[in-house]
Structure formats: structure tokens, C-alpha cells
Amino acid sequence: MGSEVTHRMIQTNGIQMHVAEQGTGPTVLLIHGFPEVWFSWRNQITQLAKHGYHVVAPDMRGNGDTDSPASPELYTLLHLVGDVIGLLDALGQEKVFVVGHDTGAEVAWHLCLFRPERIKALVNLSVPFRPRFPAAKPVEMLTRMLGEGLYISQFQVNIDFFFSSSFLQADYPAPISCINDYGRYHNHNLQELGRAEKSFARYGDYTVIKKFLLTQKPDLVAPPGEEIIDSLENQLSLPSWISEVELQYIASKFQKSGFTGALNFYRAMDRNWELLAPWQGARITVPTKFIVGDKDLGLRSFGTEEYITGGDFKSFVPYLEVIIIDGHHFIQQEKARAVSEEILSFLDKFSNV
């Protein structure tokens, strides 16, 4: 096992990507989510390296010490998967294991969809694969259903489309909540701060990260007229799974990079819908384990629990194993040992691939 985590910058897909590495052996790529950086995998890096794996944990585009292009158009899944393919090529790795969490799980799902020949096996956490819904763009549809308090809606930079005639006249399942203060959030300039960044700035990086990591809300939908960051609890003390030093480290990376790059993942969602039409109905054919916490805020939202347990999920990911364990959304940090053991038990099945 490599004695410590090492760091380097790697040129990939037109950006400089920061990568943390440890260990020798078959390569395992760890893809973090929001709002996280490579460090969210700190426990898995150590455990996987100890068990004979070469662990690679990048800061994804827009996060940490990796470059953050300005335009949301440069954060599509094609860009993010392209970053990963370029990283694997730079490392000289033809075929690897992949583990993803949250938005990183979305990247990992689509990596397997686009380039399955590069993946030995996949472990994804918290966010299941969902097929493209052909009838409507996701941000528009979700905002219609759940209102402007939905975190995805508030993470957008420009809400003009909410007032377009096509949006207002569309036949969606539920009415949109009224956006009362249009002038406050209207923003034509993509270089200016978006709604989320403005609300985050009232708290500072440390408190924003703390609120997201420690929330025990059942969903990420703010009450009418309230910002999502205001609706998250501000825990007075830290749980045993994260120390003050660790939380400060993660916050320091967002103090350096800001949140815009990370938020641009959500701002590219409707563009992804347009680009992914050729993969309509395609399945994930890579051997997969999916791990989710029984208290994950996403499990009981959007019909996720029924989708995971009722057979629909497996119809799109046929070689699927689902594990539900005790825990919340940031499961790889909160239940580090259990998650590491689940990852290792699955990867070891494919040690000869």
C-alpha cells in the first residue's frame, strides 16, 4: 500500500484536474458529489488502498482544485464523462472500477452508458439511474411538480424559462408555486452570481457545507418564499463521523473555488436532456451495486424507494444488486466502514476482470 495520499494535476479534456491517489493494484476511480471534493472519500481511499487497490479520487470539474470553466454549457454529462475518460487515458488505465456518489453517481451512470468497455464494475451511492423522460425537460417538469422551493430550481442561474408561454401552458402533473419576487432573482448575466450563490453568501462556506452535510430533512424543498439554504438545520455540534478540521478543510476548498462550478452541474440538466436523446431507452450493462441510506433525503422523494425496490430500477440496470443500510445521504462519510466493506465485497468478485 502507498504510505500516504499523493496529489497531482492532470491535463484532461481541456482542463487541469486535481487528483488524489493512494495504493497500488487495480484502479478504483471515486467520483464525488455536491457539495464535496475528493476528501469526501478520505475513509474509502485508505481502506481500498489497504486492501490492494490503486485509488484515484479527483476533484470534479468546477470543484476544489480542478479548473472551473465559467459557462454552465461546459458542465454537461458529455463534458464530465469526457473529463473522466481523459483522466483514465492520462493514467494509462484501459479498464477500471468506478464508485460514485450523488452527482458523481450521475456521472458514473453515464460513464457506464457511454463507455461500458472502460468499466470493470460499478458501485454507486444514493442516486439511482433514471432513464430520460422524453416528454419534458427535467428542471421545468420538477419545478412544475414541486415548486420553486425545490433545490434544483433554486440552483438555476436564470429563471426566465419559468415565465415562458410554453412552460406556463404545459400540461404538467401539478401547479408551480408562485415566484413572488421575480425582480430579486432575475439574472441575464451568466457571469453574475446566481440565486443560490447569493443566499449561500449570507452564511459563509463553512456553514453552507455544514448545513448540507448534516441535514436530516426528508427532502430538499424549501417552504414558499424561502431559500433552500435557510430551510436546512444549523446543527450546533458535529457528529462523530466528521471533525472540525475535516469540515474546515472541505469548506476551505469552496472558499477557494466558490460554489458556481459545482452548481453548474444542475444548470446543465436541461441541456443534458437535449444531448442524451440518442440514448433514450438504453440500459446500464455493467455489473452494479447500489447503496443507499434508509434515511437518505432522496429515498422518499420522487417515488425513489418504489422505483428502487419495485423492479423498474433493475429493468434499466439488469446486473444490479441493491443494498439499503442505516444512514443519511452522505453515507460514505457517515457510515464509512460499512460502505467501504460493501464496496470491497463487490469489487473483489471481479478481481480477475
From TrEMBL:
Q: Could you tell me which InterPro entries the record lists for this protein?
A: AB_hydrolase_1, AB_hydrolase_fold, Epox_hydrolase-like
Q: Which Gene3D superfamilies match?
A: alpha/beta hydrolase (3.40.50.1820)
> Could you tell me which residue ranges the AB hydrolase-1 domain spans?
26-129
Family (UniProt): Belongs to the AB hydrolase superfamily. Epoxide hydrolase family.
The keyword Hydrolase is assigned to this record: yes
Q: Does Hydrolase count among this protein's keywords? A: yes
Can you name this protein?
A: AB hydrolase-1 domain-containing protein
Transmembrane residue ranges: none
This protein's source sits in the domain of life called Eukaryota
A molecular-function term among this protein's GO annotations? hydrolase activity
**Which SUPFAM superfamilies does the entry link to?**
alpha/beta-Hydrolases (SSF53474)
Give the record's keywords alphabetically: Hydrolase
